[in-house]
Amino acid sequence: MSGGLFHLSAIDYFIIIAYFAFALIVGFMLRKHTKTGKDFFLSGRSLPTWITGIAFMSANLGATEIIGMSAGGAEYGMIQAHFYWIGAIPAMIFMGLYMMPFYYASKARSVPEYLKLRFNEATRGVNAVAFAAMTLLVSGISLYSMGLLFKTLLGWSLTGSILLSAAIVLVYVVLGGLTSSIFNEVTQFFLICLGILPVTIIGLYHLGGWSGLVAQIPHGFEHTWGSLGSSDNSLGASWIGVVLGLGFVTSFAYWTTDFLVVQRAFAAKSQRAAQVTPIYASFIKMFIPAITIVIGLIALAVFPHIGHGDTSYNLALPMLLAKYYPVGMVGIGVTALMASFMSGMAGNISAFTTVWTYDIYQAYFKKDASDRHYVWMGRVATVAGVIVAIAASYLAAGFPSIMDYMQTLFSFFNAPIFGVFLLGMFWKRMTPWGGFWGLVSGIAFAFIFYFLIPIDFATPNAGNFWRSWWVWVVTTVVGVGVSLITKPKPVEELKGIVLGVGKYRSYKGFSWYKRPGVLGILSLVVFVILNIIFW
Amino acid sequence: MEEQQQQKYFDLRRLIGILLTLYGIVLGGYGLIFNPQTDAISFNIDLWWGLLMLVVGVIFLLLSLKAPKVDEEEE
After folding, report:
1. How far apart are CA A188 and CA A263, in angstroms?
2. DSSP A356-400
3. Do A328 and B15 touch (CB under 8 A)?
4. Domain holding A157: CATH number?
5. Range of the domain at A40
6. B40–A273: do the CB atoms touch at under 8 Å?
7. So what's the ipTM on this one?
8. Cβ separation of B12 and A194 shorter than 8 Å?
9. What is the pLDDT of residues A9-22, one digit of tens each?
């Protein structure tokens, strides 16, 4: 218990232990509920919309995100909010309005399964294997960063905290499957808000409000668009790079095709609910910078030397917690971080489990087993996944910046998938082999670009934006080219899953707050207003 | 009937309500008795934030008393 930033007292331990007891009890209760494969993998498509909406958003709000984005706020300033605004909102609205109807109508259990229906077995195989690998790597990142956090904050040993966290996630997901990880996600969302928001409130109070804060940070750090006229800013990218790379490719790729998040909407109870899910999520997403980026700015004002010497930007949030929180609140803050870490990890593991069981094991190893057998296999995969993630956490330890490592993984893999989806969903002439070669060439090009083409980007972020953009261009060009010389799928097989063969349902006659279109426009308006306020 | 029973059992509003109410009582109670301080601010954060969590928790519990709405929406 030596060398940590915090010294926990009995009350803090009580608060932390109460959360884990709660999570495990819910897991045990859910075990009875989880009888069929559909329950375990898709929550029986029965969850209320507000739950799937919060889960959709918080599936990516792990502790890595909270710690990493507040570090980003301290390092780059308000400009980092682009990851929450242009880098998320338009994509989430587009997903709800234009892509979800095809996903939902296809009755696919996973994103790779949609690819199989739309293209062919080979496309699905490439996607499933790549996704499974990426999920485990990302799980490793969250395990490692959590271990590091506990080491810094509490003085626990790195290996000890990694193993403890892995064990808890394991018990939790094995017991309840997707429902338990969704439940955990929603609960942790409220805990994170209630546990971290006081830092922002106390900080702004302490520094004299927003204007007091702005006066104490470097000039220009309060703007999002103000310095994007050229690439001569902290992000190292101009507005073109931000809009094309982040706003278009990276963000659409992540929010519309990453199975980890898309899976949340699959659990919704109707097509309308599935469509509204990402739009609900967008309303919450827009305000998350208040507990990430703004905290980074506060840290910069309070500790002007952060990022220099031996205080890393990653300590922005932990240092403020230690400064502002008395005994008791510290327990709440640490519990919130632990819960959000567990939720991120559990989400990754349950997505891995689904893809492994349906898209790899069932497709290539054992075709016609009983439902019970697949549920059993799902539990085995969970155990195996957690063990691999522990190994991957030591791999993550070798990279200097965890957030950059994660963004790079996304640019390698999500950008080509997105290229294929965009063509596949909106162009019925796209052929199965067009999809396959588009995907393969996109992934291959990402590797070539990263390892063989020596371009020095100003920052890793700028590199990721531009790589994503060009990977998408290559995927699209190859996809269209191959489609023009190969044979398309018969139209009957595409029924409902491609634009022009299926059509959009109208929700006229529903009350306005139930209509995806109306909610989408509302979300867009709030998004524009926020960008103007913090231009 | 069994379906309804199950929904009540797993009502997330109730679970979150229980957790937040418990945290609110523990944190607020601790603040009330010990009033722990940090050097940055002078008011009793534990007490006030504990009360807030208690209120949020109770709101969730009250919401969960309402029968879960079953949307009869065609797919």
Report:
1. 18
2. IIIIIIIIII-SS--HHHHHHHHHHHHHHHHHHHHHHHHHHTTSS
3. no
4. 1.20.1730.10
5. 10-404
6. no
7. 0.82
8. no
9. 888 888 888 888 88
